[in-house]
Design brief:
This protein is mainly α. The protein has nine helices and four strands, in the order αβαβααααβαααβ.
């Protein structure tokens, strides 16, 4: 089947989910299972390492011409991040430079803690200064990165809240809706994939843990004559209430475009002037 922008975006999503779930040594399934919250729980088929998968996305996206350029940028940005994580600064800068050349402009991401050690490098400063953005897109970049942090905190809190539950229900991890505005620059689409991957990876982990807890409780209730069914019912009610409140909070976090936010391309804020959301 011929590649399309949508099919390669889906493939990139699968690669990022694998990296978030299994780290730099992740093996990316040949067949995508990441779109299902239970995908990781069900078991992933054999595939290729993440670096190979990202190079493959870059090559296939380049073959699409201008329509695929932002996916080329996404692939190089991913390779740059992996190289930096491995302490390979030169390789990281090489890929980040290629990402910027292809349209990457997430200046907020370039202020995250793993990237900050590169700020003193003249090559990094040069590539950063080439990026252009609109104020409207910058607003969304801040929201996207803030939402990644919020989702991570929600997942940690949910895992604590579920400790000791005796019910057999399965609670999902509510997610804020993805922005639907038409971005001024296609670099925004890259970070939207990153957020979507964070949401998928966290939800997969939550569902896996929930299925394990639920099945364990079912087994114990069948063999334990003293099983506390009244408490199990109370736990279920409490869990439902918590999930409802988390869903409402997620919906309330939806991105709202700021009236009057500029749509003219301007240089990114000076390097070092951005505080990464946390």
């Amino acid at each position: 089947m011929a590649d399309t922008v949508n099919s390669l975006a889906t493939r990139l999503h699968a690669v990022v989910v694998a990296l978030l779930t299994h780290g730099p040594g992740a093996v990316v399934p040949e067949q995508d299972v990441s779109s299902s919250p239970a995908g990781d729980f069900l078991g992933a088929p054999q595939g290729v390492d993440a670096v190979t998968a990202l190079h493959d996305v870059i090559a296939r996206a380049a073959a699409l011409g201008p329509d695929g350029t932002w996916l080329v940028a996404a692939g190089h940005a991913g390779l740059g991040g992996l190289a930096v994580a491995r302490g390979q600064a030169d390789q990281g800068i090489f890929h980040l430079d290629a990402a910027v050349a292809a349209g990457f402009n997430d200046c907020v991401a370039l202020h995250a803690a793993p990237i900050r050690p590169l700020h003193h490098d003249p090559r990094f400063r040069a590539l950063y200064e080439r990026m252009r953005i609109t104020q409207a897109d910058l607003d969304e970049f801040f929201w996207l990165h803030q939402e990644m942090q919020t989702m991570s905190r929600d997942a940690q809190q949910a895992s604590v809240d579920n400790i000791g539950r005796l019910d057999t229900g399965v609670s999902l991890l509510p997610q804020a809706p993805m922005p639907t505005r038409e971005p001024n620059t296609l670099g925004v689409l890259i970070t939207r994939i990153d957020l979507a991957a964070v949401q998928t990876a966290l939800q997969q982990a939550a569902v896996k843990a929930e299925f394990q807890r639920s099945s364990g409780n079912i087994s114990l209730s069948l063999i334990d004559d003293s099983w506390d069914y009244d408490r199990a019912r109370r736990d279920a009610w409490y869990a439902d209430d918590l999930e409802s409140r988390r869903q409402q909070a997620a919906e309330a976090r939806a991105f709202v475009e700021r009236p009057g936010a500029g749509t003219v391309l301007i240089p990114c804020p000076p390097l070092g002037s951005i505080t990464y959301p946390g």
